[in-house]
Amino acid sequence: MENESEKARIHNQKHEEETGAFSGYLRIFHYGSSKDYTLQAIATACALGSGIGMALVNLVFGQFITLTTDYSSGDSDASEFRSDAGRLKVQAQAGAFAESILSSSRTVQAFGLRNHLLRDFDKFLQASRKLGNKKSPVFGCLFATEYTIIFAGFGLCFWQGITMISTGEVEQAGDVFIVLMSVIVAATSLTSIMPYLIDFVRAASAASELFQLMDRKSRIDPLDESGEKLSDVMGYLDFGKVSFAYPTRPDAKVLNNFSLHIPAGKTTALVGASGSGKSTIVGLIERWYDPLSGTIKLDGQPVEVFNLKWLRQQIRLVQQEPVLFAGSVADNIANGLVGTLWENESPIEKLARIQDAAKIAFAHDFITQLPNGYDTVIGERGGLLSGGQKQRVAIARSIVSQPRILLLDEATSALDPHAEEVVQRALNNVSKGRTTITIAHKLATIRDADNIVVMENGRILEQGTHDALLESDGAYSRLVRAQDLSVVTLGPEDIPSSPDEANKEDNVTLTNELTRYSTMTRSALEKQLSRDDFDNWKRLGLLQTVWRLTKSTPELNWTFAILILACLTGGEAAASYPGQAILMSKFIDVFTFTGAAMRTKGNFFALMFFVLGLGSFVVYFVIGWTSNVVAQTMNHKYRKQVVDDMMKQDLQFFDRTENTTGALASRADSYPQAVFELMGFNVALILVATAGVLSCSILSIVYAWKLGLVIVLAGLPPMLLSGYARIRMEAAMDHKISKLFSKSASIASEAVNAIRTVSSLAIETSVLERYTQELDRAIATSTKPVLFIMLPFAFTQAVEYSFLALGFWYGCRLVSFGDLSEVNFYISFLSVFFAGQQASILFGFSSSMTKATNAANYIFWLEELQPTIRETEENHDIGPGDFKSMHLENLTMISMLERFYDPVAGHIKVDALTLVRMNPWLYRGQVALIQQEPTLYPGTIRENVSMGTPTDCASTVPDSDIEAACRAANAWEFIASLPEGLTTLCGTNGTQLSGGQRQRIAIPRALLRNPRLLLLDEATSALDTQSERIVQAALNGAASQGDRITIAVAHRLSTIRHADMICVFDGGKIAESGTHEELLGKGRLYPKMCEAQNLGT
Description:
By secondary structure, this protein is an alpha/beta fold. It is built from 40 helices and 18 strands. It folds into 3 domains: about 5-215 and about 535-865, ABC transporter type 1, transmembrane domain (ABC transporter transmembrane region fold, Up-down Bundle); about 235-305 and about 325-375 and about 385-510, Rossmann fold; about 885-1095, Rossmann fold (3-Layer(aba) Sandwich), CATH 3.40.50. A hairpin with a 2-residue loop joins strand 9 and strand 10 (about 460-465). Helix 7 (about 135-165) runs antiparallel to helix 8 and helix 27 (about 705-755) runs parallel beside helix 30. The radius of gyration is 36 Å and the shape is elongated. The two termini are about 50 Å apart. This is ABC multidrug transporter MDR2. Its main location: membrane.
């Protein structure tokens, strides 16, 4: 997937998809069918050696079986494959949607979106179920036709054998008997493969997307080794009449005849409104896209001529929303060294280089305060660090390799004013002699740029230095005035002169999320370790699991009826095996007759095989049809239930190291799939095989009790015990292996979700190597246990032929002594033969049994797992007048106010009621949160904005209310400018919109909620100055409505200058508080922060 350019990933070519899908189906299905053909060919070859005519008859029937199987599975009809592929595509969309839900647990809980998102998720599942149920008659035909033709083939073969003997074409009955037994072996091979044909069909459909991706040639391939590599890069860039539009909106040009010269070794700043094309320039320089027209040159040469990986290694990017990877702090910073001269340095030298970069980025001090320093694991996407800390680590990662070109896309937007001042000075220092392109809304960060480019609608309004642009009194001057703060000018002694001095002063302010996590929630996690750890949960066995899967869905009574019907039909189908034994024995006895009597009796028993085939058609058609209905129902139910049970958990569940988004998404997909496979066709066939073993064993004892008891008691118990041992061993191993493979799944998920960061760092090869290493480790770890598990399987195969040999010897002995007739011997012996075959088939499902048992146990554990902060723990209602005041002791964190966590010490009060005693669902219903990195979900803008209302009303929000909220957030203008307006798709995680646009959609979502408590966590950090001013006015107006309480966390002090109270934190405590004017008068910490952001117009 990493070989796909950004454009190729989003651009859909329908015709190529359909062609690639169908060819992929053919490829995988023909591979899967090869086992069928091979076994059939071996047995047919044996038959051909003894009787040409009869073998050819059965060869024709075998080919007819194959063609019927192909037709039933859709091989002869592309529309059937497209139907199954459509189901799998819908299921894949459901998986992607589930992953977006699981990666945004804070937003889900803050807005109470569990029921709303579950309904949207269920729409995908309902569509998948509907498409899957359409295959029910196909699977019915697949089962019924296969078994019917096998029995009909037996009848035809017997009839042909009798005819050939009576006409003299075959002299000895023994030749016919050899052919008959060869046909039986071939038929048994076909029937044993039958259960797996369903898997082959599904695999064929699933493989279409994979083959299409593998066969697609990426236009922008980072693994392509071709292209030039300059020995010395000067670093100047030229945009020449560049025009560009995103593939998803080809009619809306983001850049139009854009021309700009970016000199080497200088700092060029890009400013302008959100959507003006600033970030697009970064994407074009990184070659995520190619322009529609015009050229982009590096050192005078078009960027297309350079080796892509080499080009990206000369460039380093710090994004507006930094992405870190699961691992240690040192590992994340070291990602910036991949592909450089310093990648293979000694660990000591590399660590020194990493620490130097961290010091420059003002990150060294807070890193050393972490529990394990640079070796501290920071969680998925760096989730255990605050936004500012993540951004500083990202800055260190970008400068550690000393790149020639530095791209800063709002690189300091998440930093507080004090840290921003020092980090900006550090960035100014590392930018010297290096081409730097800065995108900024905080104009204080680019005032020293060599050239400031003001953009609007993909064009340049004006450009020049800070002073020159102020003198011209144009668009830039207006932006500057909007951000000015009225402060007294501080003396030089009040401003930190170096990063070291600033580090010393700011040391206590670096209260990080990881330390909070360690001290505040670790004790709670330790108390719940036994409850929250699946390894400590008492697992259910196979029979208990199947019973509970059935009992746990009382609302699906019709499903149970279908399942019971499948079980009953399976028991009836089992009668075909003892019936075969009796008919074959009678047929062998026919050879003792001669002339017309032989033909009459032979024709009668051949006809009985046709009758048995017709009965099997009805039985197995019901099995195929009903089993698929049961499977689709179970699949729908448990996919929905798993995601719902995950969403109901509190954040402590998601903080656990084993519960990364990738791991949870993988379980949400694979575990219901395992239940789906067991409770559908497999459980029906297991019942058929079990009934077959019992009925054939009983028949063997009834017709020849001495022979039957010897064979059954000598052979079946060892086979059953070995099979049971294999199941137990696989069950013990399966959970361990799934844990090992979940690590590789997390790496893949993390890389795909952060594809832009992966590509900008040019670490595709490194990610692939890590992924391969995890796979190799998992495979190596599981190889030895697999060898041990195969011992019981090998033993069952050996026992089967051993007790058949024993039975044949003992039966012949009984016949020779006159204790047993030949007919009864054949009935008893063939019954045991079929019993052994059914036992082998039964334990062939051991892998499915163990996977489904472990998966179902996880589903049961998750169902019983209750969050620490429950939605219904208390029922203190919260009325309109309850949000009059809030009293917080010791802790004032957004997470505490949203009740993501409860404090270990101190308390939070709403009026006189302690927050921990309130019903979380009712409380959050009157709270709205706007985060620094807002989350949007797949769907339209209308759907995302309407999520701010109570869940039950989200689908009925009038467009007029949505429009009013969007206008208040200054989002309506850009929404209305889109071709689809409110129906514009946001894409997964809002990827079809810029960061500023995403935040402007998150704001009306919160305002539409009409909250009593409004929490603003850097709510305007991604907005340009003009938009910020308008949105801030709207937020101020919203904050002043009634008794609404607004708590704002802000680094842009201009956004909180009019607050009723400003609290300055230092070391986790309030150092000073007051209004803007009062704090300026005190002349302590707050004035220094204001001075750092004053532009001095």
